[in-house]
Amino acid sequence: MADRTRRGGGDSREAAERAFRAATTRPAEVARPTQVAVPRAREMVSIRLDRDVLEHFQADGPGWQERINDALRKAAGL
Looking at the domain assignment, is residue 58 inside a domain? Predict the structure, then answer.
C-alpha cells in the first residue's frame, strides 16, 4: 500500500472535485444585482409597419419615431 501522507493524505480525484465545486459554487450570501427601473426609459425594438403608415409619420421630418410612440401611447390609453 502506498504512503499517502507525502501527497497530502487524499485522493487526487477527490481533491480536484473539491476544488471544482469550490470554484463553481456561488456562495449563498452573494445576491444577484437587481435591475433598477428607470421611468420612461426607451428600449430599442424592431417593428414592421405598413409603408403608408411609416410615410405618414416621416412626412413631418425628424421626430417621427417620437410621434409613433405618442400615437401608440394614446391608442393604448397610457
Answer: yes
CA atoms within a 13 Å half-sphere pointing along the CA-CB vector of 21: 6
Residue 52 counted as domain residue: yes
Residues near 65 by Cβ (< 8 Å), separated by ≥ 6? Answer: 57
pLDDT in tens, the chain (78 residues): 555 555 555 688 888 888 888 877 776 665 666 767 777 778 888 999 999 999 999 999 999 999 999 999 999 998
pTM: 0.48
Amino acid at 16: A
Answer whether residue 21 is part of any domain: no
Domain tally for the chain?
A: 1
